[in-house]
Amino acid sequence: PTWFAALDTDGDKQVSLFEWRKGGKPVAAFNEMDLNGDGLLTRDEYARYAKILDDTLKQKKREKDAEEKEK
Length: 71
Description:
This protein is mainly α. It contains 4 helices and 2 strands. Strands 1-2 form a two-stranded antiparallel ribbon.
């Protein structure tokens, strides 16, 4: 994501909670994406989070579609 490079102010290819907060982002969002809870967000970790989120949304849509078919 484009925001990643902007928040990675020290160029270590990860966004720390400090960098995240300095960028004015909500801590709750960081904590949700920090899958291993180490206080650092990598591009790979974000990609896994985005896939989980996408899969969850697709599942909810399938469930909603199935409910509507039953009506």
